[in-house]
Amino acid sequence: MKLMTAFFFALLAFCAGAQEKAAPFEVYGLLLPRPVEVVRGNAEIRSENRPGEYILKIKNGKPSVEGDEEGRRYAKATFWQLNKLAEGKKLPDAVIHDWPKFKYRGVLLDCGRNYQSVESIRDLIDHLAKYKYNVFHWHIADDYGWRLESKKHPELQSAKAFGRQVGKFYTQKEFVETVRYAKKRGVTVILELDMPGHTLAFRRATGFNSLATEEAKIVLGELIDEACSLLTKEELPIIHLGTDEAREPGEQVPQSHLDYWAKKVTDNGRALMGWSPGLRLPGQSIKHLWRGAVDPRGDKCPYIDSQNLFYVNHVDAEAILSVAAYQKPCRWGSPEEKLGAIMCVWHDDNIADTEDVARMNFVYPAVTMLSDSFWNDCSDEPDLYGRLPRPDDSRYARARDIERRVIAQRDRVLKNLNHPFPYVAQTSMRWTMTDSKTGEVIAKDIPQATVYPQHFWYPSGNYVKNGNGEVVLETWIRSPKEIDCGAWIGMTGFSRSDGRSRDAPTPKIGQWNKHGATVELNGVKIEPPKWTHPGVGGNPKEMPLVDEDYWYREPAKIHLKKGVNHVKMTLPKRGGWKWIGTFLPMMGESDHPREVPGLEYSSVLTTSASF
After folding, report:
1. What's the pLDDT tens digit per position in 154-189?
2. What's residue 583's pLDDT?
3. What is the distance between the alpha carbons of residues 571 and 580, in angstroms, rounded to a whole number?
4. Ramachandran assignment for 56, one of left (phi > 0), alpha (psi -120 to 50 degrees), beta (any other)
5. pLDDT (tens digit, 9 = 90+) per residue, 372-400?
6. 570, containing H or E segment
7. What is the pLDDT of residue 298?
8. Residue 551 and residue 495: Cα distance in Å, rounded?
9. CA angle, 566 as apex, 561 and 567 as ends, to 5°?
10. Average pLDDT in the 330-358 region?
11. How far apart are the first and last CA of the chain?
12. d(CA 321, CA 406)
């Protein structure tokens, strides 16, 4: 009788499921950023009244929310994501209790060097809001253009002011509307008027050879006043004055100038922010950390962290995962000092297409991935900033989990995204690295697509300790069927800020890099691309990057046979900056790639049925 009753209820459940399919509870495990707490069912959770905190209850597929205005906005973003992830299925009952660990979580976009359209900026702001960022840092003035309209000093919009994209600037109306557009979505705009460094456009326009003069000081002060007059202090609460890299003779100013400009900001009721390292701003200004592996703040003060690999323009598309998983935001100071983190998109070189800034700096995958550590914090693992740990290392699980979430976001939540999303899952890969001269095995089971034998900034994670040498990377790929597909292959690793200046010229025809790197598939060498600018080195900032890196050029065409395939990369290094190799099978175009289904990887040759 008990067996019959159990069968009856099981049949009822099956029939109910046929009428309205329910998403598995695991859909909650695909959110980015990861919520602090998710409880199955209808548990009672007490609010702790933190800023931005929310309690989202989902019962019978319907939401109810507790929280302040900010928290309710984050709850809405969470529920929107969940419905996209569930793909039309009913959400299981659950309670989400969540809040941000950091006050500010943002992205800097450099529009001084390369103008970006208002539409593309608003698209980025929308994406920030979806992933619970709350800051858009608008770097709007630099050597190539003072791109915020001034009616008091219209010479800043004259042709002589611009170094590139002549005449491209944001009208005051566009600026105001974009700030308010962001504010409605819970995103605060930080305006950066960089001074006294990076002011060539200003000096060309005004004719000031030196900013040390009283006249130059006053004009820059007037521009601060004018910018602040456009919006209330609630709408535009922070003004960033730059202050870094004042290297040119015309950029040297006395401290009294800095004090004057700082007072202009504070007299307008705005918080003051500047780069560190940089020239000293008075008072308790917000320090914005940008360089170094140690605490550069000097005196104790609130700060925002943008150090090192949060500058995504230095990182390859597949290497961003290690940054997202293991670089901790705000490593120093008291909780009151740790304001948060800003991911920076510096594209110093000229661009050939307006989408290239987002494409070449993989802005959308990076924002999506970094949302997790910017929201939740993470443990700091400096030896893993540039590599992923072996699968038998307990830390590997974090990278694997973030990747699983970002692929779900790419395929379900962002499947109609009209911007490039160049990321392919890589954590199932397995490489063996050996010394090509001695045959010594240096490392096994390296689980990533982009491998640094030596990292260009963080030696604690290096596989190879000496400066130069030659390594061989090998992997065996089992394919369930014969297939023609693409592959991302790269062996140079350009930065998009002075991309060719760090001893990394575009390879010559017939080369993968200047060191003589090669890649073989099943014993046959894969030929490198026909480079658009072969052999170009030095620092030609006005010659845009076109096909130098793997994720923004057409993928290589490869053929995988059914069964086991062997890949071998030979990577010599003889001087230079980056020692790097990438190989990753993929499908589709580089802007919107996908994984090749069914592939299995091994770091050793095996004849077993399963790797």
Report:
1. 999 999 999 999 999 999 999 999 999 999 999 999
2. 98
3. 8
4. beta
5. 999 999 999 999 998 999 999 999 999 99
6. strand 563-573
7. 65
8. 13
9. 115
10. 94
11. 47
12. 10
Q: By C-alpha distance, which of 529, 539, 532 is closest to 504?
A: 539
Q: Do residues 148 and 115 lie in contact, with contact meaning Cβ atoms separated by under 8 Å? A: no
CB within 8 A of 238, min separation 6: which ones? 188, 190, 191, 270, 271, 272, 273, 286
In which residue are the tokens 């941000």 written? 100
Residue 53 zone, left/alpha/beta (φ > 0; ψ -120 to 50; rest): beta
For 193, the 3-state DSSP assignment is strand
Would the pLDDT of 565 be above 70? yes
Residue with tokens 């060309």: 204
Angle ∠(551,557,558) on CA atoms, nearest 5: 115
Q: Are 311 and 139 in contact (CB under 8 A)?
A: no
Q: Report pTM.
A: 0.94
Q: CA 127, 40, 61 angle in degrees (round to 5)?
A: 60
Q: Of 263, 282, 264, 285, which is closest to residue 274 (Cα–Cα)? A: 285
CA pseudo-torsion sign 296, 343, 333, 299: positive
What is residue 289's three-state secondary structure?
Answer: strand
Which tens digit of pLDDT belongs to each residue from 55-82? Answer: 999 999 999 999 999 999 999 999 999 9
Closest Cα to residue 580, out of 405, 441, 481, 446?
446
Instruction: Name 154's Cβ contacts closer than 8 Å, sequence gap at least 6.
Output: none
Task: Give exposure, 259-291, as e/b (b: 16+ Cβ within 10 Å).
Answer: ebbbebbeeeebbbbbbbebbebeeebbbbbbe
Amino acid at 86: A
Statement: residue 572 has pLDDT above 90: yes
Cα gap 175→118, rounded to integer Å: 9
DSSP H or E segment with residue 265: helix 255-267
Instruction: Let me know: does 182 contact 152? Beta carbons within 8 Å.
Output: no
19 pLDDT exceeds 70? no
CB 278 within 8 A of CB 243: yes
Q: Mean pLDDT across the chain, nearest whole number? A: 93
User: ∠ CA(597), CA(599), CA(602), 5° rounding?
Assistant: 160
Q: Where are the alpha helices (DSSP H) in 20-158?
A: 69-86, 118-130
Cis peptide before 249 (omega within 30 of 0): no
Selection from 138, 145, 139 nearest residue 200 by Cα: 145
Q: Give the pLDDT score at 209.
A: 94
